[in-house]
Design goal:
Blueprint: H1 4-20, E1 27-32, H2 37-43, E2 56-62, H3 67-70, H4 75-92, E3 97-102, H5 105-127, E4 131-132, H6 138-148, E5 154-159, E6 166-171
Helix pairs in contact: 5-6
Amino acid sequence: MIEPQDLENIQGLVQEFLTYMVISDFTIQVTVSPEKEDDLKFKDLPNQDVPRSTDSVDVAVTLPEPQFLIGENGKTLLDVQRVLRIMLNKKMGKMFYVKVDINGYRAKKIEYLKKMANELADQAVTAHESKALPPMSSYERRIIHAELAQRQDVRTQSQGEGFDRSVTIVPK
């Protein structure tokens, strides 16, 4: 369980991390992530290897020049998130997920992916042919699959291996 004091400690550690990266003029907001329905599915599984805690912390950073921390297609952002998660878990002695967002990039990216998925699904249905999306991360593929799962006129499938894995939208 993440306590209010933990949030203050996390904020201080993130501030220290960014300062060591020679970043100035930023603001940080740390909050406990609300539990989502998907998180609840895994909470009480009998398998001992599955963590029972789904504590998750959202770290929102705002700064004037965010691109160098976001990187191409958010790759640097994912690396920053990974490093912060490892560092925070070690320093705090607790295991929890850390989701980092910089200048609202994640929300914009999710909206973009959903819009692209629906536009390509419409094209697939109209043209009666499959549409392949470019290779993307598992997180991005999951967003595409979830968005199009509601539709009755298309289905999605992942293809490829590793960094070349992508989603294909197939009309029914």
